[in-house]
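Please review the protein record below. Tell me whether the encoded fold seems credible here:
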Amino acid sequence: MKNQLFLFALLIIVSACKQEKEMVLEKEAIMESAKAKVETSAFPENLTKVLNAHGGIDAWKSMKSLSFTQEKESGKEVTLTNLDSREALIDSPNSTIGFDGETPWFVNKTDGDYKGYNPKFGYNLMFYFYAMPFVLADDGINYADAEPLVIDGVTYPGIQVTYNAGVGETPEDRYVMYYNPETYVMEWLGYTVSFVEGIDKKELHFRKYGDWQEVNGLKLPNSITGYGFKNDKPTDKAKAPNVFTDVKLSTTAADSKVFAKPEAGTFVE
């Protein structure tokens, strides 16, 4: 009889522990679900639709590294970026620019003066243009509707992006992303330039999107074309487009050692 009572009591205790564990797991699931909803609700509805048209923010966030190649006059320029840390490496025949997660650096591979990107801003310059519209879902961003862009009889709605103080090297930058009103696919980008001396820091410059390729289910640029600009509107094509080849998205981040400054490199403060 005592054994039966003991087993009965033990059964009650085990059952109670199981129920308590299930309640804890259920509570954690509810909290995670609520957290996800909060994160999603941080985006305006039209931006969410744009992100979805390009494959979705969840798919983008599951990726940990991105690389692409551009053909330059000096040869192939290969860009590698860890998406979470934004560690970066831009390697070309004449120079290498890197960002170790804290400080940018560069290596001049020629005997002459260095004439490449300003490393302080250049380590993520083309990455930022290339990773549109997903980089517009970064932390520390403010959103507002922008005046639509009307080109060739088509009205492209716009989403303006500004940054909180201390976000990035140039938090005073402003971007306006314009999207197709029917497909919600990104078509144009307006942006200010604040790191080049002698340029109006408030006037919008423009790049044309629309030539896309699909990589791991995400819609990324095949090419991006720079345009002239006047009165916050694009005018004519300014030059040949930037063309991106050998694009790779991976769910695995590159080893941080790849982005460390070599002995021949110089830090840029």
